[in-house]
Amino acid sequence: MKFQPFLLLSTVGAVSGQLDKLAKEAGLLYFGTAVDNPSLNNQNYLRVARDPAEFGSLTPANGQKWSNTQPSQGRFTYGSGDAIANIARQAGQQLRCHTLVWYNQLPGWVSSVYNRDQMQRIITAHIQNVAGHYKGRCYAWDVVNEAMEDDGRYRNNPMYRAMGVDYITHSFKIAQQTDPDAKLYYNDFNIERCCNAKINATIAMIRTIKAAGAPIHGIGMQGHSRVGMSPSKREMKETMARFSELVDEVAFTEVDIRHTKAANRRRRKRATRARLHGSCRGLFGDAKYSWIPQQYPGEGEACLWDRNYNKKPAYHSIVGLLQSAASAGLRASATQAPVAAAATVAARSAAVAAAN
Ligand SMILES: *[C@@H]1O[C@H](CO)[C@@H](O)[C@H](O)[C@H]1NC(C)=O
Predict the structure, then answer these.
(1) What residue stretches are annotated with the GH10 domain (predicted)?
(2) Which of 6, 32, 135, 329 has CA 20 to 30 A from 126's CA?
């Protein structure tokens, strides 16, 4: 990237860092982002990402996934996850941990296991080691990620094939035994728009988890969206209300709103506003480190900063919405409604990028 002193100044100057600060003033828990390891040598990017007034929470985009933490059986590697966790610690940011059990970025030695007991032992060892390594450092863990299909069936992944739905309840139980203070989340996409088959099945699954005596504290809505296709404010509110009956916290965990450069500003603002209703969310990332351009060529404008670290109109829309939420006294109502603010863009990013 070309060195641009003016942009650099604007990043560290008077207009720097305010999303997390405003989110908290509006009664939310945090406004966060995901950071991936290849970005760690980019000082311009890091200046934004580790500004705690901008982002109160960091998520390792890939470093804590199974393929990074236990690439071969019994060999645990934490370098990638630790690099992000250490940045968060140094900057005084909270750590949101992602993810323990997911069918993607899963090493072949796991996906080739069909025996129930063997799979159960593998999951136990994985969670005990990984959640044990980060014990006390994770505000929350995405314990299980993307276990449902859009049509409401359980995703037929290697863990499900070996153990049925028990793999989910087992994972939550082991996660709680290992790190009793972490908020344990189920995280998925396409569960923002009330009330599709996937949301209904997710609710049934959460009930199954609870009925089995396993702890679950939060539901993460990934919030991948597209300008013109975003769920309405009413739909999101309804979904969050349904989820809030089951768990303590609901968070938008990976928000991005993709669109082409040509999409006009008005539509962009409308999509942002739709997402920023009442309770929570946020987003972040410059296009450079988003997963969107690999998956959806030409629609890489999903984040709040452009690739030269200029804040986009959507950034300023969010600031305005958070400011008015704060002055409208949302604090009180947000505390009553058990809704956590989150916003991590691109946590799924390299997942998808790597898969391509
Ligand atoms: C999901 O559940 C809601 C509320 O019970 C219901 O109105 C809706 O029709 C269901 N959707 C599907 C696709 O089954």
Answers:
(1) 13-321
(2) 32
In the numeric block, which tokens belong to residue 300? 């890489």
Q: What's the sign of the alpha-carbon dihedral 28, 30, 31, 34?
A: negative
Name every residue whose Cβ is closer than 8 Å to that of residue 152 and which is 6 or more positions away in sequence: 197, 198, 200, 201
Residue 317 is predicted with a pLDDT of 84
The ligand 1 atom nearest the CA atom of 199: 1
Return d(Cα 171, Cα 169) in angstroms, integer. Answer: 5
Residue with CA at minimum distance from ligand 1 atom 8? 195
Strand partners, 249: 218
List ligand 1's pocket residues with C-beta within 6 A: 195-197, 200
Q: And the tokens for 58? A: 């960091």
Q: Catalytic pick from 192, 254, 299, 301?
A: 254
**DSSP helix/strand/coil, 112:** coil
DSSP label of 312:
P
Residues lower than pLDDT 70 in the chain: 1-17, 260-302, 329-356
On the 0-12 / 13-18 / 19+ scale of CB atoms within 10 A, 171 is buried
pLDDT (0 to 100) of residue 294: 67
Phi, psi of 26 (to 5 degrees): -85, 5
- List the one residue out of 21, 18, 26 whose CA is nearest residue 322: 26
Provide the CATH number for the domain around residue 115: 3.20.20.80
Domain count, the chain: 1
